[in-house]
Amino acid sequence: MIFDKNTAKKTAELLLSIKAIKLQPNEPFTWASGWNSPIYCDNRVTLSYVPIRNFIRENLAKIILEKHGKPDVIAGVATGAIAIGVLVAQELGVPFIYVRPEPKKHGRQNQIEGFLDKGQNVVVVEDLISTGKSSLNAVKALLQTDAQVKGMVAIFNYGFAIADDNFKTANLELTTLSNYENLLQQALDTNYITENEMKTLQSWRKDPSNWKQK
Fold first, then answer.
1. How far is the first Cα of the chain from the last one, in angstroms, to the nearest whole number?
2. In a domain, 137, yes or no
3. What is the count of structural domains for the chain?
4. CA–CA separation, 94 and 107 (whole Å)
5. Is residue 105 predicted with pLDDT exceeding 80?
6. pLDDT of residue 35
7. Residue 72: CB partners within 8 Å, gap ≥ 6?
8. What is the pLDDT of residue 33?
9. Is this prediction's pTM over 0.85?
10. Across residues 65-82, what is the average pLDDT?
11. Is 207 within a domain?
12. When comparing pLDDT for 106 and 194, which is higher?
């Protein structure tokens, strides 16, 4: 779910303005998964724009306080959410850790980097939600240390049905600054896309693994 409509609209506007999100229904991207996609999102671009970085930091911190209260620790999901997670932890004045996709193969073989005590309240920060698999993998690693994971916040959510199902199964609350519906509406309102392109983008989200440009 999004935090609120105004924040979702503003976030979409900012992400489009700096090309952190690109919409190319006529020249699709190819994701690492092999999916053809008319959209590409790289929220790390926001780190290079101070006002936008500040907006994201402040609003993610606001969501956390209103939804979950002040946590003991903020956990970022490697690698995309490490930097923004640090910024949010700094805004809240709490410690930061990050979670790798899997334990290191050498040294102490950590999956969680930083200090986390048993029973501490943790809120997880992500940059982007697609299927939710990698995000929830990080949550699983935290739970195995007896952490109390209160919820997850993220900048943007594609809103795939599989992600909704995965978060529901995990019984974890996800709140994002913006999502696909608000992005498309903002893009249409500002003539970034046409009505026909809007339909193409909507059709992709319904079945992204099998979508092909028409």
1. 31
2. yes
3. 1
4. 27
5. no
6. 87
7. 94, 95, 117, 120, 121, 122
8. 81
9. yes
10. 96
11. no
12. 194
CB atoms within 10 A of CB 18: 12
What's the CA gap between 89 and 84, in Å, rounded? 9
- Residue 80: strand, helix, or coil: coil
Question: What does the alpha-carbon distance between residue 182 and residue 2 come to, in Å, rounded to a whole number?
Answer: 9
- Here the CATH number for the domain that contains residue 175 is 3.40.50.2020
pLDDT number for residue 125:
98
- Domain containing 123 equals 5-17+48-195
Within-domain flag for 103: yes
Is 95 a domain residue? yes
Secondary structure element (H or E) that encloses residue 129, with its range? strand 121-129
pLDDT digit string (tens) for 161-201? Answer: 999 999 999 999 999 999 999 999 999 999 999 999 999 99
- Rounded Cα distance, 68 and 62, in Å: 10
Amino acid (one-letter) located at 5: K
Token pair 């620790």 is found at 73
Instruction: Please answer whether residues 196 and 184 qualify as being in contact, where contact means their C-beta atoms are separated by less than 8 angstroms.
Output: no
CA distance linking residue 96 with residue 74, whole number of Å: 5
